[in-house]
Design brief:
The complex is a heterodimer of chains A (274) and B (65).
Chain A: E1 15-17, E2 20-22, E3 26-28, H1 36-46, E4 50-57, H2 66-76, E5 80-82, H3 90-104, E6 108-111, E7 114-116, E8 121-122, H4 127-136, E9 140-145, H5 149-157, E10 164-165, H6 179-188, E11 194-196, H7 202-210, E12 215-218, H8 220-223, H9 228-248
Parallel strand pairs in A: 3-4, 3-12, 4-5, 6-9, 9-10, 11-12
Antiparallel strand pairs in A: 1-2, 7-8
Chain B: E1 2-5, E2 8-11, H1 18-25, E3 32-35, E4 38-40, E5 55-63
Parallel strand pairs in B: 1-5
Antiparallel strand pairs in B: 1-2, 3-4, 3-5
The chains are: A alpha/beta (274), B mainly beta (65).
Chain lengths: 274, 65
């Protein structure tokens, strides 16, 4: 009997984005936690690949801004993924990204270009233009997009080495509302893809990882849980389980029952039992 | 001269630069600046002149998703 493979001996199954390797496939947002201490504990529990952050006018929200948050980011020692949340035009997104690069000292940017304030749906008609200009300017762009195949392909065409389709509108926690399109997108596009936004349960994260997505980015599902720290751990476990299942290769579903226990030698068995 | 700093009217002695606007706002690092929706690198604050009516944005890190 072969001995079981230890995790240490198993080949590394790391997430690679723009040539950089990450040990986790979970990216975690930093907003809406009950307190900075809970945020810190949640990040330490989840051990995410990156944490997201944003930029706002100084003093606009004292509880979530300023030196204390900056100090916390430094202490966490997790790569920061700044976003362009709230931007409604290409120029706003580009300027915000440039400001983020200077403040956070990183070329990574989660490109958010909002086209509709009610659903926070990405502006799919201008997203490619913004991504193209940012990539030309040296950014490593992770575009928040819809599950539209052609949009994602265009983003790849202009140099995005990964894309981040939504599962559902930001903050809804509904899970994948269009499973067919998300699965089809995964089959059609051969770049790293992270599901970003709309996840509410660890099972949602596990599901998209089983479909072959390379990672997930979420915030509200952890931050608004009754116990955000425990939920952070639950999502980390779910992402890892979904990835392991994808790698392991699932069985094909069958219509007819098949006994898993061998039939041969069943005691008390008679032909007339059918 | 009259400018806007984070959408608030501000009066600065002319001629003024981005460095003057930053000082007027009392901004403390870390922060970044844009003028009229154009990013201004921190190495350019003292050299970037402001015009009447310019819109200066000074932004800082916050939590985000």
């Amino acid at each position: 009997m072969p001995s079981p493979t230890t995790p240490e001996a198993a080949p590394a199954d790391a997430l690679v984005l723009y040539g950089q390797t990450f040990q986790s496939r979970l990216l975690l947002g930093t907003a809406r936690y009950p307190s900075p201490a809970v945020l810190e504990a949640a990040v330490r529990r989840a051990r995410p690949a990156m944490v997201t952050a944003s930029l706002r006018r100084q003093g606009s929200n004292a509880a979530e801004t300023g030196a204390s948050f900056w100090e916390l980011l430094r202490q966490l020692d997790v790569p920061v993924l700044p976003n362009t949340a709230g931007c409604h035009s290409v120029q706003e997104a580009i300027t915000t990204a440039q400001m983020a690069r200077e403040v956070f000292g990183t070329p990574w940017i989660k490109l958010e270009l909002i086209g509709d304030d009610y659903t926070l749906q990405p502006d799919t008609l201008n997203l490619v233009t913004a991504a193209e200009q940012l990539i030309r300017d040296g950014f490593q762009v992770l575009p928040y997009c819809t599950e539209d195949l052609v949009l994602c392909q265009r983003l790849v065409d202009v140099g995005c080495q990964a894309v981040m389709p939504w599962a559902a509108p930001i903050g809804t926690g509904r899970g994948p509302v269009n499973p067919y399109a998300l699965q089809l997108l995964r089959e059609r596009l051969d770049v790293p893809m992270l599901v970003d936004a709309g996840l509410g349960l660890p099972s949602h994260a596990c599901q998209v990882m089983e479909w072959g997505y390379d990672g997930v980015l979420l915030n509200t599902a952890v931050a608004l849980a009754s116990d955000p720290v425990a939920m952070a751990g639950a999502f980390a476990d779910a992402v890892a389980a979904g990835r392991a299942a994808r790698t392991a290769g699932a069985m094909t579903a069958q219509d007819a029952a098949q006994p898993s226990t061998p039939v041969l030698g069943t005691p008390f068995w008679h032909h007339d039992h059918g | 001269m009259n400018v806007f700093i984070n959408q608030q009217p501000a009066e600065l002695p002319a001629p003024a630069t981005v460095a003057d606007a930053v000082a007027h706002a009392g901004a403390r690092p870390p922060f970044a600046v844009a003028v009229n929706l154009q990013f201004v690198p921190n190495t350019r604050y003292a050299a970037h002149p402001l015009q009447d009516g310019d819109r200066v944005e000074i932004i800082a890190p916050v939590t985000g998703g």
